[in-house]
Every structure is written in C-alpha cells, then in structure tokens.
Amino acid sequence: MTLPPPREVLAGEKVLRINWLPGSDRLRGLCHCGAEAEGEDPIEMWEWLLAHPDHPAGGPTVTPSPDVLPPPPAHRVSDPSIIRTRTPVLV
Amino acid sequence: MTSIVQNQWYVAAYGREIGRELFSRTICGESILFWRTEAGQVTAMSDRCVHRRFPLSEKPSHLNGDTVVCGYHGFTYGADGVCVAVPGQKRVPRTARLKSYPVVEQDSFVWVFIGDPDEAESTRIPRAPWLDQEGWTVVSGMEPLKARASLLIDNLMDLSHETYLHGGYIGTPEVAETPITTEVDEDAGIVYVSRHMADAECPPFYSTSTGIQGRITRWQDIEYTPPCLYKLHSRIAPVGVLPNEDGTDPDAFHVEVVYAITPETENSTHDFWAVARDFALDDESVSDFLRENNRTVVLQDVTALDVLEQVLTGEPDGYQELSINIDTGGLAARRLIAAMAAEGAGTTVEQPAAATAP
User: Which intervals of the chain are annotated as region Disordered (chain A) (predicted)?
Assistant: First the structure.
C-alpha cells in the first residue's frame, strides 16, 4: 500500500508536526523553525519539539530498556470516594 | 483544582431542545436553566432561585411571558436573570439576580460560556458549519457518558480503536494499520490528525450509506479545537479516486462527523454527536441508517468508557499507562488542554508535555 507524502494542512506560523513514517515504527518530528529529528516515542518527540528553540542535539532521548523488565504494577483498588476528589493526572 | 477548563465556550444543547418550556442541564458542574424569549432568543441563567435555591426548572416553576416564576415562593426573573418581583413587598433586593451566562446559538448548537463572562467575547467559538448549511443533511443526538471528558477525547483522537471496538460498523483492519500524521498549531489551538488509507475495506457504515461496492480510498482527518469541538472530516471514494487539482471532489462522498465534548461534572460528560453528509440528501432511509448506526457506535464507546472510568476511579493516583505511535494526536490534545486549563486557572504549566505518570 503506497501513500502520498504527508500533507501539511495547518497554515499557522508555529505549527509542530510529527509524521509516522510509513512502513516503519519511526516518527519524524518537524519544528516550525526547520529542525527535524527522528525517534520512536511520541512523548519524547513532543518534548523534543517543545524544547524550541533549544532542541537537544541528537534528537529525542531514548530511554534504554533493561534486559529484564520489572513486573507491571499491581492493580490495587482503593476507596473510590477518596480517589474521586483527586485531580486527574494530565500527561 | 478542577480539571474542567474554565473561560471557554461549551455546547450545552441543540437549538431544537430549547423552547418555551424550562430546560435544565448541568454544564461543567453548573446547573443552568435555558429557555427562549417570545422573540426566540435563547437565555441561560442559574437554575437555582436566589431565595431558597429551589430549581427554577422544577414545576410548578413556569414561564410568564419573558419572565420565569419560581414555583416555590414566586420570585420572578427577567431574561437577563435580574429579579423583577418578590412576593408580598414592593422592594426587590438589589442582590436578587441569577447568575446569567453568555450564550450563542450557532451551527445548530447552543453554546454557553463557562468562566469569567468578560472573557466570552474575545474567546473563540469553533465552527461546524455543515450542521446548519444548504447542501448537507444531518442526523444527530446526545448520549450521557458516566466518564470524565478526557477519556472521550483520548478515544476520539485515536481512531485505531475503530478496528477493535467498532468492527462490523466503522472499523476495518486498515484503520489500525495505517500511519498517521499529526500537526499542532498552539497559537490557533488546533490538533490535526490525518490518516489516509489508499486501499481499504469499506465498512458497512459507508458501504450501505454510499452504495460503494468493493474497496475504497478512505481519508480520516481529525480537526480538534479543545476543549469542546471535535470534527472528523471523512472522505470515502472508490479506490484510486482522488480530488481534482482545483480542489473539487465530485466523485467522493463526504461525511462530517462532529462531536461536542462537554463535561457535565468532573466524572461525567455530555457526548453530543452529529453526522453530516453531502450525498443522498433527501433519502430518509440513509438518514435512518446513519442515525441508528452512529448511535450504536457512540454507545459502544460509552459502554467502554463507563467501564474505564470505574476502573480508573478505583485505582490509586499515578496509575501507569503506556503511549505508542497511535497516541501522538491524543498526547498533543492532552498537552493543549493542560495549557488551556492552566491559563483558565491563572497558572502556568512548566512542562506541558511531561512524561507519563510514574
């Protein structure tokens, strides 16, 4: 399946772009200043773009994965009436 | 601190819902009374009498011309929320006025401003012109969601879930398989996510409504203007059929799927949905099909998100999640909303793209 090159739709002067490169798992970030970088993690890529004008050299940080991953966290259940009062974490 | 973004316009109702009957809906935690004046203007004011807090939407409260009369003790308010009569005395206390809300009727929606009313005029109301425009036919509805608005935003910003949650309706394998492009204009407050499928299976939602047999070129272009209005520009055409170079596109079918995501409370949401099409304009059977099918799809989301809300409220703070490429647009939306929330609360976000919870 072939795709046309990514279109640029938004016409503002400070548009940030992330293109998922077809045929791969890679992302390419493009800042309005012309800086570009490739990476594999959308969170890291947004942080790299938002660092404008001080985009870290070498592109987004890649967090090395340990050979042996720790077990996932337990799904503990606590009192909903308390938790409902919390402020949701916006990531 | 509230998670609801202040100083923004939110869709409170469809225009058709507001008439000469008193109508109440909770928007962003505020119980608001709506009614139309005899001249047809929509009014919005607090749904609590200043006297003893009786809801003005409750019978025997009623309209009398362009005033609303409290059914408990008769306090009477004008269309601007100012009390014009109290029982048994001529002097009306100067503080006897209901909180009134800036309100605008546009694109079939009733928009209400939540926050400082002085900010209303300079704050954008995003447009969805197809919902009230010649050349388009619209079906629409609203489903109550027992989940926080951010869960619906996550859902709509990543349409790869169509493949799994909406298979047999709008989901096909190609949706989840096709890479997206994401653009953010922070100044304009827009997140734009494109997924263009060159050669895809045609899901029943589109094969039945358009009559296209065989595979399709399917474009999904999301244009989200946080916090409330979400538009999915959907283009369906036989494989290989593209727009003309001059921008005209006579051989494709266009569907504008519009959502208004309005918090009811911190943990519940009004899920307004509308489907506008530029084909089969007068075909009632197509309208019936799209209305029924889109409502089914919305209810599939509602069922899933209601469960998710229960799960999340039962887990301790800092629950862990994982983001991958399909989440690029959703992450951008979260960041914009966090910045808007901070602005509405008069604070700043130092690291709006902060990493996932610990």
Answer: 54-91
Closest Cα in chain A to B239: A1
B198 CA: distance to closest CA in chain A (Å) = 6
CB-CB: which of A2, A21, A43 is closest to B331? A43
Both B306 and B261 in one domain: the answer is yes
Judgement on whether residues B101 and B18 belong to the same structural domain of the protein: yes
What ipTM does the predicted assembly reach?
Answer: 0.84
Distances (CA, A) of B34 to B37, B40, B90, B130, B298: 10, 12, 27, 25, 26
Whether A77 has its CB under 8 Å from any CB of chain B: the answer is: yes
Q: A65 and chain B: CB distance < 8 Å anywhere?
A: no
Neighboring chain B residues of A4 at a CB cutoff of 8 Å: 196, 198
The CATH number covering residue B244 comes to 3.90.380.10
CATH number at residue B47: 2.102.10.10
Quote the CA–CA distance of A46 and B333 in Å, as a whole number: 11
E strands present in B15-151: 23-27, 30-36, 42-46, 62-64, 67-69, 76-78, 83-85, 103-106, 109-114, 137-145
Work out the pLDDT band at B68, boundaries 50, 70, 90: very high
Complete DSSP assignment for B314-331? TSPTT------GGGHHHH
Structural domain of A37: 10-62
Chosen domain end from B69, B96, B119: B119
The H or E element spanning position B293 is: helix B284-313
Contact list in A for residue B197 (CB cut-off 8 A) is 1
> Can you list the alpha helix ranges (DSSP code H) found in chain A?
42-50, 80-83
Judgement on whether residues B267 and B301 belong to the same structural domain of the protein: yes
pTM equals: 0.90
Residue A80 touches chain B, beta carbons under 8 Å: yes
Per-residue pLDDT of chain A (91 residues; tens, 9 = 90+): 444 556 789 999 999 999 999 889 999 999 999 999 999 999 999 999 999 999 999 889 766 667 777 776 666 666 666 555 656 555 4
**Residues 293-312 in B contacting A (C-alpha not used; CB under 8 Å):** none
Picking from B177, B185, B216, B323 by the largest number of A CB atoms within 10 A of its own CB, the best residue to mutate is: B185
